[in-house]
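User: I'm curious whether this sequence folds into something compact or stays loose and floppy. Could you predict its structure so I can see for myself?
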Amino acid sequence: MLSLFEHYTWATPLCTPCLDFYTLKESEFFIMWLPVLVVLALILLYRWYRQSQILENLSDKYVFITGCDSGFGNLLAKQLDRRGMKVLAACLTEKGAENLKKETSSRLQTVMLDVTDSKSVSSAANWVSITVGNAGLWGVVNNAGFSFALAPNEWQKVEDFSKVLNVNLLGMINVTLHLLQLVRKARGRIVNVSSAAGRLSIIGGGYCPSKYGVEAFTDSLRREMRDFGVKVSIVEPGGFLTMMTNSIDGHGNNLRRLWENLSTEVKDSYGQRYYDQYMKLLQSLIATASPRVHMVSDCMEHAVTAVYPWTRYSPGWDCKLYYLPMSYLPTVISDYVLCRSAPKPACM
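Assistant: Here's the prediction. I'll summarize afterward.
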């Protein structure tokens, strides 16, 4: 009878390809994959080089930014001003405009703007047209945003939804339409600020629908403007620590107000525990917001100043590693993951 070793030795010629694979030297394995690695490295190098190309004559270009009192818009206005660009900063309050002027050069100009007021938008657009003259408007950054009544949909009224939609969606559309002709004249840029919540609906209320609307409007506008030489980008931040997200008291008070105004029947259906869990969920969303706000303004700056701006920017690791991947999963999977951490009503 053949020993086990003799049997294995006799059988190996039948598996020559397998034997060749396992006896392949490390150096030969590396040489085999070297062309692939070189191609990947060249692709990454080309991508880096392409994205690092910045426009010339930035000092000749006008950029209009909404929501410059604080947050992303305020920081972007300062960054573009340091670049030497002619910044037209729209603020909601006189105090916000005064503080911004103190921290920037004389090139930066401010204008009062309430994006929910058509007369205010029209007046600001006329001012921009007179200011830029024949040069046209190189960039519009629709940054103004509002977060209100982050709460279950059933707890709210249509007026609660309207307050958010009027700022985040309709106001953004109104500003864009008023300034679009000036941007086409300069063959410039439009940058609309959406959110990771515009790709994955993570909470009730008008905020997520408004950001989904920003995505849809921007996608259609980008295709329409392509033949005019206008580039349109979307910025989809994850959770960042701004005035809008930092006010846990404001969000908590809104949630409490909505809860207290519910009918007894609805309250009993959800239960006190549901309210308490929802409040904790809201607090955790705000507590995990990143303080590195410059990551968002850097994306906005690139969209305005780069020769080849991206179609979409997704600043924030939570956006890259959680919200966006989750949005691509089958609905049954994303629903399961999100519902596991959601509050449970008393009826369960």
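Summary: The chain has a mean pLDDT of 89. Strands lie at 62-65, 86-91, 109-112, 139-142, 189-193, 231-235, 312-313.
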